[in-house]
Amino acid sequence: MMKRHSLLLLSLLMVTTMHAQKTRPDAFPPIPDTLAPKVVNMATNLDEMASWDRYPTYEVYIEMMERFVQNYPTLCRLDTIGTSVQNRLILSLAITGIGDTSGRPEFFYSSTMHGDEVTGFYLMLRLCDTLLSSYGSSPDITNLLDRVRVYINPLSNPDGTYHSGNHTVVGSMRYNANYIDLNRNYPDPFGTDPLDSLQVENIAMINYVQNHHFLLSANLHGGSEVMNYPWDSYTSYELLNDHASWWKEVCKRFVDTCRMFDNWRFRDVSNNGYINGGDWYVIHNGRQDYFNYYCGVRELTMELSTSKTLSTDYLRHYWDCQSHALINYIKEIFTINTTTDRIQATTAAQYRTYPNPTRGPITVATPTQVYHYNLSDRPSGVYVISVEGHPVKVVKQ
Questions:
Q1: What pLDDT sits at residue 2?
Q2: Dihedral (CA of 220, 222, 225, 230) sign
Q3: What pLDDT is attached to residue 340?
Q4: CA distance 130 to 265
Q5: How far is 253 from 255, CA to CA, in rounded Å?
Q6: Which of 112, 128, 144, 111 is nearest to 71 (CA)?
Q7: What is the 3-state secondary structure (H, E, C) of the chain?
Q8: What pLDDT score was predicted for residue 93?
Q9: Could you report the average pLDDT of every consecutive run of 10 residues in the chain (397 residues)?
Q10: Which of these, 276, 285, 295, lies nearest to 348 by C-alpha position?
Q11: Catalytic annotation on 303?
């Protein structure tokens, strides 16, 4: 059935270009440990990673992931999510306890989609090691792995991290090998198409997530210390996330746990250590909003160190500070209402908007209706159209 509705009948919010988009500062006031000269030591073999005070070369990283499976074949397997532009591997380690795993919910950690933000890369490798080596000896970790399937992708942009060569993370860059920001390259759940074609790293990640049933995930970044919860595309005033109260509680528990070990942590963006993404600065085509909206995954963006490439002198300190919080975050999966999230994800995927951006005409197809609007007489900007109570973002060129 075709229907044409007047814009006058819509609840339409215009966020014009006159509405200044907040831009993230290049740097925040340094905390004391970032004032010292930076040291970046690399491990060129597995033995040199034993002290956990170095970053691995690319070859050592691959060896580490393979060694986990060799040492703990009953507890983990190695998945290849895909390959990068330059054919480096994008890997995920699937970890769970012994026994029947069919009813266990799935959790996902993924790090370093910005190649120069490598603190999370290190933390995820050490988390893999800790979970596997502690199973059977730590009642807490044993119980956790007997109840959850944990997937860990330590490095999702290997070309950016090893931009200067496989031997070092010095000279790493934010972008992939095509010089595209992978966190501005996902389909926008509110209707804005990416400026660049979808990159192979993101295609692989989307396919991997769609082949799983992750309930909770986190995307690890660096450059600040703050828990960034959805939405990124809107301020909380423009569109409050349905789970905002839940997110605040989860973020507070994470930050409070870290501050038990180091009270300096997570203070450079917000004194409480967490913030709605758009209230910090608005971005479009980010992974967090895509995962939350389309995939039924509650994903949080964790900014874990004020320095993007943390000095190796501080790696062990950051692990001591954050390891308990990272493990506890996995346990938050038990606080999720899974039925509600799946219904919302299914509904979101059923709204198609085209062309978007538009110079005027716009079509929104729902499961039962096709709506036509015309923004020709509207100034350029970003609009949110309410269609059957569902927010649809449209960009007017």
A1: 40
A2: negative
A3: 53
A4: 22
A5: 6
A6: 128
A7: CEEECCHHHCCEEEEECCCCCCCCCCCCCCCHHHCCCCCCCEECCHHHHCCCCCEECHHHHHHHHHHHHHHCCCCEEEEEEEECCCCCEEEEEEECCCCCCCCCCEEEEEECCCCCCCHHHHHHHHHHHHHHHHCCCCHHHHHHHCCCEEEEECCCCHHHHCCCCCCCCCCCCCCCCCCCCHHHCCCCCCCCCCCCCCCHHHHHHHHHHHCCCEEEEEEEECCEEEEEECCCCCCCCCCCCCCHHHHHHHHHHHHHHHHCCCCCCCCCCCCCCEEEHHHHCCCCCCHHHHHHHHCCCEEEEEEEECCCCCCHHHHHHHHHHHHHHHHHHHHHHHHCCHHHHHHHHHHHCCCEEECCCECCEEEEECCCCEEEEECCCCCCEEEEEEECCEEEEEEEC
A8: 98
A9: 38 39 44 62 98 98 98 98 98 96 95 98 98 98 98 98 98 97 90 82 95 96 97 90 95 98 95 96 93 91 96 97 98 81 52 72 80 83 73 70
A10: 295
A11: yes
Catalytic, out of 117, 201, 299, 303: 303
Q: Which of 55, 64, 46, 87 lies closest to 222 in space, CA to CA?
A: 55
| Single-letter amino acid code for the residue at 148 | V
What residue ranges do the domains of the chain occupy? 2-18+352-396, 32-343
pTM for this entry: 0.81
> What CA–CA distance (Å, rounded) separates 312 from 291?
32
What dotted CATH number matches 32-343?
A: 3.40.630.10
